[in-house]
Amino acid sequence: MQEFAGYFRDYRQKRGYITMIAIANDHVGYELKHMVIELLDEMGLKYHDFGAYDTERSDYPTFGGIAAKAVAKGECERGILLCGTGVGISITANKVQGVRCVVCSEPYSAILSRKHNDTNMIAIGSRVVGPELARMIVKEWLTTDFEGGRHQMRVDIIREIEQSRD
Ligand code: RB5
Known about the structure:
about 170 residues, alpha/beta, Ribose 5-phosphate Isomerase B, Chain: A, 5-stranded parallel sheet, 7 helices, about 15% strand, binds D-ribose
């Protein structure tokens, strides 16, 4: 059973299917999260909201870390993170093995991060990016496929570096 679950997860990831999106934020990203959720609803995509669930001061690594682990384990194919700048929460996510998180404030990098880097998480700063631009960024990021080929080889090098302990 375990083996089957792993097989289907790998298959979905290879084909770029998105069945579940992890979403997380701190208090500063809370409002923007709801705007992003509106977009996911419009796109008919399912998500798991890992919090924070209100605007009370909270710590971005706590929530970003939980969402990143869900992506690394394959429970969610992709993850969207929101904090003030997107920086702290993306640094956190990139500490989790298997996560490639881009912090993004315009669509071009979001698209290229999918095509070339096969990013599985994106972080957006609510103090940097307005709601309409955030929607555009997320939409492009969710609908762009990884190109593979020479880019796969580079992503493999990233993985090797990540797994080396020296
Ligand atoms: C919180 O004040 C702020 O530091 C956080 O939202 C984020 O911008 C960190 O990178």
